[in-house]
Structure formats: C-alpha cells, structure tokens
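Q: Okay, next protein. This is Magnesium transport protein CorA from Kocuria varians. I've checked the sequence twice, so it should be correct. Can you predict the 3D structure?
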Amino acid sequence: MSIVENAIYRDGRRVESPGSLEDTYRLLQSVLDDAQRASDQAAPAAAPAADDDASHPGAEGGVVAPRPAEDTVVAWISLYRPSREEIASLAEHFQLHELAVEDTVQAHQRPKMERYGHTLFTVIRPAVYQDETETVEIGEIHIFTGPNFVITIRHSESSGVSKVRKRVEADPDLLRTGPDGILYALLDQIVDDYFPVLSGLENDIDEIGDALFAGQSNVSQRIYELGREISDFHRGVAPLSEVMRRFFAGFSKYRTDEELQHRLRDVLDHVIQVTGKLESMRSSLGDAMSLDSTLTTARQNEAAMVQNEQMKKISSWAAILFAPSIVGSIYGMNFKNMPELDWALGYPMALVLMVLVGVVLYVVFKIKNWL
C-alpha cells in the first residue's frame, strides 16, 4: 500500500484517519451524510440550490456528494508512487478523467493545471537543493482537487506534503475553505521551498567566480553542469505563472474564497520572483562561460609566450655551441691543399675564431633579449 497519510476533515478538523482507500470511500460518505443531515436539520425549509455551479454531478455513487456551505467536508489522500490498481480505484470512485489518470500513471509531466468538470488536475515540480552533492533534485506531484476531496500523488522522495498537512491542520480557517485551501497550501509550500534552492545555486555561482580566477581546470565542466541544473529548474518553474493565471480565471465561477484569492496571488508573485532570479542566473552563467573562455585564451597565450622565450634561449645556445663546431668541421676535412694547415699560427687562429664567433653570437642574442 502506497498511502503515506490519509485523513477526512470536517469543519476544519480531522475527524477520520482511514487506513485504506476502501475505508476512505466509506468514511467519507458517512461524514458527508452526517453533514447533510445536520444541514437539513438546521434549515429544514431551505430549498435546494438551483445554481448549476453549486451542484456536483457524478455523486450518484455516493462518494462525491453536495457539500453543505456551512460545514466543509474534505478527504485528503496522500500517495507515494501508487500502483496502477490504486490509481484505477481512485479514478473509479472519484470519477477522475481518463486523460488525467493517464498522465498520473506515466508521470514525467510538465507543470500544468487542467479542469475536467468539477475536478481540477494540477502538476507541480517541487525542488530540493542537496548540499552534499551541490545539485538540485526536482520531483513531481500530481494533485486532484474535487468538491470534497484532494488527492496528492508524488513521484519523488521529498515533496513537503507532510509539512503542508501539519500547516493546514493547525489552521482550521484554511481547512474550512475546502480543497482550494489545501491546493493553495501545497502551491505555497512548494514555491516557498524554491527559495533555498535559489540560495544554493547562487552560492554555486559565487564559487565558480572564485574558481575562474584561481585557474582551476574543471571550471568549464562545472559551469555546464550548473547551467543544465538551472535550465531544468527553470523548466519546472516557468510554466507555473500560466498555471496560476488559469486558476485565477475560475475564481468567480467556482466561488473561491476572497482571502484565498489574495493568498494565491501572493504565490504568483513568488513564482515571478523565482523565475526572474533563474533568468538572471542563466545570464550570469553565460557571462561566466565567456569569462572562462577569455581567461583560458589568455592563459594559453601566456603559456605560448613563455614557451617562445624558452625556445629562443634554447635556439641561441644551440647556435653559440654550433658555431665553433663549424670551424672545427672545416679544418677537420682531409684535403691535401689546405694552406692554413701549414701556418704556424693556424691552430691558435682556429681556436680564436671559434671563441670569437661564439662571443659575437652571445652578444647579438643578448642584445635581442634572447638570453
């Protein structure tokens, strides 16, 4: 069983903690029936609402029933990598759309929000910065919100769902806003968790700046790896702006709580901040890559200049040492008619010539700063 935690809330309080999906279906219907009876007793003469948006089709199975406005009932099912059978069970009892179910089974979806009747399907990508490896771990959460249920299906190890549950259970007023309140809390927590990731990435960029001027050899590889992480993170965050705006478009039709609307707009502001910082980081990494290329070229030129100077010295000394050998080679030839061989001063003159040629070459190379 992949259920992480399961609870049914009524009027902002947890009233049931089912241990299985079957118990959830049964207990949710029981709590809904109790709430409906309480509503009927409180207002026996009240006529049924005629507004189509206030009714919830698909309740004939007894799982998704009309919710009394004054007594909010919501079941929150949290699953971790559920099996196909569990997803099929949820789809059958809560009448989830087959396209949304298919996306959940396949996973690896982009952030999005799609409405199927009275069920809202949301995909969001949480992110965690791993200090040990200096990498960003990007997860995936699928959220189904209906008239009286929230289903969170996560495909990553860490998602912050447990923190959100504690938060909403400590805030009965938020729970009374129903599934929309839980969806807001999930979005808010996941977006808030983006900021520590940004801090970690900013530290990595600062380290790259230090490494650039320290002349470390693996800077280019680190810039590439960090750029890929930032791009992946950006792909998980950037679509959220449009996702949130699509959610806002349904505020009036689906009677979203006014205070909740303000909170959701604050989440959008945070999404825009995160997106802006990520774009700035991508620009900074581009500058770092250009600087790394410039510094690498400068170091290569400097190394080439040093090598040239060394070659000059080697060539100069080779010429100085080679010059006397030329004189010696000339007079070492075995020809009979070499007048210098009969001179009394031929030998000392040859030595003087060898030394003189070497000295002249040394002076010339010294003047040219080759030595």
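A: Here is a summary of the prediction. The domain at 1-168 is CATH 3.30.460.20 (Beta Polymerase; domain 2). Confidence is low (pLDDT under 50) at residues 45-69.
Q: Noted. On to the next one.
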